[in-house]
């Protein structure tokens, strides 16, 4: 237990717990020391030096993010000298920054901009050379723009500590320091999983999603195509934040209405395909379970996880469910079943997905997902992009009359909704698998063990006297930890859900930027977004995927039954081990390494 | 080897090699063959003696005759006169020996050594560094034996504390305290690191210490391991030091063979081993946390302290990290006692300090002086003053982290506090003497260019701030300085000092701030009058012909741009707009008829 000690901040004394940094203590006492490289979920970098404070008796300023308090410590956070030093530090950052705020995608959403405003920088003193690098546009999902980078290192820490992908690092020294993938490999060829978490934590616009909004606006004006949109569960749970609402508001009705106003002919819901995914995935699991198939079976909904797995866990490929993600299932059904139903050549259909995710842009371009020579999804835009489009098109999002999605691909059970929260896919699958296996309805359908933000969650349930052990991980770092366990102990689990982003899809790389004075990926916001989806589940009469009448109809009219040949053609895929360019395969390295 | 009558020590340091010591060696060998006394003489390669400007250095034992500046043409005479007839060649002798304490016994009468006191370098230039028996003959590994047999780890720490030794890497943290902190940590594993990542431009103290006497450093490290409870030592040394690495490897191997390293050292239950890790030459890796990251395989970037390495260091384990020179003090402290070391030096700084003396001074090289020696004694008594009758201007200590001290500070004593008070730092031991022909603004610019280049790029003040300081200094030396530039340098400099993450940034502005403090008028001249009094800033320089010109035409012929006009036997004229300030006319003129203005 931490003892209580006395410190003074700006000449006033306070009693505080001893095991804290100056910043932690100051935060609790209501002194918000300015900061930039600090992020509560990442290791302490101490790089930006914005959070410096004066401690009496010390010659130099100390970074409050890293310096521990001690009894009797006298801290000053706001002396004139200190304000001036901080101001000069921010000014130095600005001196090496493009300052094209008005045309920058993060204008009004930029931490540097806000910080500079709070410093009162009204003149510039040290202007000189600015760095210049080409933008890296090689990835389908994530753009890297080193000119905007202020070298706070948050992306590097996110990529290595939380995601454990280790794609990004600082390279070179001094003024030439730049963040890049190893050997300056293009993002598109690097081990980047396109999860977009670097975008989420970047205080400026050094990382952005590849923007398809102009492309989409143009195609929405094409009278010769049938414009179909689907949107992911988590989009509705977060988009309100882009319009200034507190996290956790379900904006489904507003979104559907806005899509129609933007010019979409049909508005469908990815939650429908989530139900479909459950039908296939639960059946696949039971088949493996009953016929000594490869277990544990691991989910495949998350695109970042898909790329991560192909690169880093090729030994587990046979464990991965062959089910496509809900987005890709929805796309495939749209261009087959639905096209036939409305009597339109599927090549005339523009299939758009609005996703909380940047990696879905990568997924949509995977050649493995092409059916009958067509991509299931033509354009993927993120929550951020669609929010901008709605604003740009002059749609009064907050006051618009709610509308409902179209049939037959727009209705979902409550199980489809919770896909967006970590543990949701597993919970939905259990609801259906139980009934498919036992013929009885599972009564207690809210499975608390696998909800929430704990990194790796475990659960057990009994189906017809047999124990099923499940595990859930969110964020690729947690996934890595879980899979190391699996590699050592392959029989420990039967069924595993993995989501690439912290919190699951609600924390996706395409979600709205943190609001003013909020922390990116704040746990409270993630929980509220997830809560919106659980509320949505509770509000529905149908909460099990197999009870969705439109799903039943789809099987009856088109797919026949789960895992049928038709299902396999449209709803399943395959994976192959990928060795990113520049990394030498283990076998070629020789045994000595 | 019983027939050997003479033992020749030939310095194998870089300066001596540069002065043809390798050629000298083969000349000696062939001359010995010719004279038929090859078997009577053994030839050894030694480490640096420090008298770099007198190289190549050859010592003949017995007798400790030091020859300097020996050329191959001198060899027959040395062999005939000294080795055959027993009469040293007086004209090449630097000084003969006089017998009192070990070091003075050998070198005491040489001016260069008169004011020196060699503790850490005591064996450098005296023993064959690649021969462990040589080291053993000068009480080598006796301190280790004493520690393992007669002392508890606590007693070792207490002895180091008693000595008052402070870290020689630059910051001067009390070594005994650091050892105590690390020893007090409870952990399943601890590490001991020797920081041999010497990076200051022109400094070569650590390299020479290892090249000349690697066993002393290793012995110190093993003792440190015993004191703090570590079983593994790592020497982090830059890959640009191939000879030092080679000797270190040999020494580690020999020590292992002799049972000073490895399992159950000297029959006790203490086991310890040392390995070498090579650094790629990043200056910042001399900073302890960056060095630790580098060993771990990560990018060499410092991290905020606390936690200090003594609590959480290499791989998160308690780690004792000391500089080469600090380690080299340890065997002496154990053998002669902490009290003895603390009798040398000043109130707060004990023992000796090694400096790499360079710049505009007669005797350049490596010197070890007791703390408390004045700068004047080093520059004039040991260094022999300024050559070519030029005037002393300043002495720069601490390399890129230090400051420039003008004449009025020459009587400053060498110790951590006095140097800091005067506006410089002890640093790791760089000492550059500057005469009137050096421009202080250019000097400051040189150092800030170095630190900007070597900044790890992590923290804003160092990465961005030193860049702007460099830009301002560049425009000043190019004659484009503006009013207010000095104030901007001061403002940036003091912010960078107080706000940077690590020692590199915190000290990077020192050369600039100290030259502004002590030579402000030079900055002002550059900015306001566009004038460089030292004549070093090319852009601020004009060459003009004075009345001494006899019209010989030499300058006109050599000028690469045709900027000089004039008819024979008449005064010539330099056309300023065509002149590229290459200075060739100035150098070629025999009549001192060209002025730099």
Structural features, described:
The complex is a heterodimer of chains A (593) and B (597). Chain A is 35% helix and 13% strand. Chain A is an alpha/beta fold and 593 residues long. Chain A folds into three domains: 75 residues, Ubiquitin-like (UB roll) (Roll); 88 residues, 2-Layer Sandwich (Alpha-Beta Plaits); 327 residues, Fe-only Hydrogenase (Larger Subunit), Chain L, domain 3 (3-Layer(aba) Sandwich), CATH 3.40.950.10. In chain A, the strands form five sheets. Chain A has a five-stranded mixed sheet, covered by helices on one side. A four-stranded parallel sheet of chain A has the order 11-10-13-14, sandwiched between helices. A four-stranded mixed sheet of chain A has the order 12-17-16-15, with helices on both faces. In chain A, a hairpin with a 2-residue loop joins strand 15 and strand 16. The C terminus of chain A is likely disordered. With 597 residues, chain B is an alpha/beta fold. Chain B folds into five domains: 105 residues, Glutaredoxin (3-Layer(aba) Sandwich); 210 residues, Rossmann fold (3-Layer(aba) Sandwich), CATH 3.40.50.11540; 84 residues, Ubiquitin-like (UB roll); 90 residues, Up-down Bundle (de novo design (two linked rop proteins)); 55 residues, Alpha-Beta Plaits (2-Layer Sandwich). Chain B is built from 24 helices and 18 strands. In chain B, the strands form five sheets. A five-stranded mixed sheet of chain B has the order 2-1-3-4-5, covered by helices on one side. In chain B, strands 11-10-14-12-13 form a five-stranded mixed sheet. Chain B has a four-stranded parallel sheet with strand order 8-7-6-9, sandwiched between helices. About 1% of the residues of chain B have low confidence. At the A-B interface, helix 2 of A face helix 18, helix 19 and helix 20 of B.
Fourth-tier CATH superfamily name of the largest domain in chain B: NADH-ubiquinone oxidoreductase 51kDa subunit
Overall pLDDT score of chain B: 91
Radius of gyration of chain A: 25 Å
**SS-based class of chain B:** alpha/beta
Q: Sheet bearing the most strands of chain B, described?
A: 5 strands, mixed
Q: Mean pLDDT score of chain A, rounded?
A: 94
| Integer tally of domains of chain B | 5
Oligomer: heterodimer
Task: Enter the CATH topology name of the largest domain in chain A.
Answer: Fe-only Hydrogenase (Larger Subunit), Chain L, domain 3
